[in-house]
Amino acid sequence: MKIVTKNLLQPIFSLTFLVGLSALVSSCQPSQPNETTAAIKIDGSDTVYPITQEVSNDYNFQKNNGKSPSVKAIELNSSGTSSGFKKFCLGETDINNASRPIHTHEIKKCTQNNVTFLELPIGFDAITIVVNSENNWAQDITLAELKKIWEPSAEGKITTWNQIRSTWPNKPLNLFGPDKDSGTFDYFTEIAVGQEGTIRKDYKADKNYKIIESKVSSDINALAFIPYSYYNSSKDTLKALSVDSGTGAVMPSRTSVKWGKYRPLSRPLFIYVSYKSLRQKPDMREFLELYMDKAPEFVSAIGDVPLTDHAYKLNKIHFNKGKVGTVFEGKSQFNLSLEQVLQKQAKF
């Protein structure tokens, strides 16, 4: 797939002139809703949600300190990456939080609805395999064992721990994870099973990671896959398993993700920005500039892995130049290190 980027944003002075002209015209007409006060609508990934929530809180705090008191609150929801893209590509939202790259069918839908977008990576996550903290038999797991657990043919058949590994006890295997609207679900199923969205159906699915955490925390026989930041917030009651992808078992950590050791279960996180909204809602620019400035701080604060300083600078360059499109060819790309993502963005 050939990736085409365009330089769409007008110079700042032109945008300022147009906004000023619009204000002058509106002042000579009957009072109408001010476009600058329109809420910024954000939906999508539950994994990215906490980061965007922190930025939104900071943005609203600044707005309420006299800068622009008329600006309405940001409308922030979390319906999952896939569900969010459905709304985004219909033009119903301004920003979509995403825990995977936009897919080909979603690009097609956006194109059909004239939704042009900017793709901004904001951090890295590690999909974490967790068990109850009292589980004293499982310390690590292989990709082959994950497939054995989660593939469709395991439904109703792989139901005890000793069926995964003979040295593990003959105890019930209780499985938990996110639902099909989740980008984590998409990414994990393609890695573990080999086909996105293909997974056994007899596990307990939920869109709320807090509920999944609670279920695993109260069940010694439980196993689940969740984002790294959610594991980080529940280390007292959850235990992470190291994952062996063929070169030895590796624990998820900021260091293992940063240096490309925890692969293929590490992945970039994104926000996708509607270019039309960026043009029509001047507050979008201010919000996104704050987002790019604060991303390293808030990504770290919620327990994920920030990109390099250079990567965040590239985001700002692409944002100011109005580079639209994606560098991920309409699919999730596994085994990418942070530096490889950076190289892709540098060529964007």
From TrEMBL:
Keyword entries, A-Z: Phosphate transport, Signal, Transport
Protein's organism: Dolichospermum heterosporum TAC447
Position of the signal peptide: 1-28
Residue span(s) of domain PBP: 33-289
Function in brief: Involved in the system for phosphate transport across the cytoplasmic membrane.
Cited Gene3D superfamilies: Periplasmic binding protein-like II
Family indicated by similarity: Belongs to the PstS family.
PANTHER family: PERIPLASMIC PHOSPHATE BINDING COMPONENT OF PHOSPHATE ABC TRANSPORTER, PHOSPHATE-BINDING PROTEIN PSTS
Domain of life: Bacteria
SUPFAM superfamilies: Periplasmic binding protein-like II
InterPro entries per the UniProt record, alphabetical: PBP_domain, Phos-bd, Phosphate_ABC_transporter
Listed name of the protein: Phosphate-binding protein
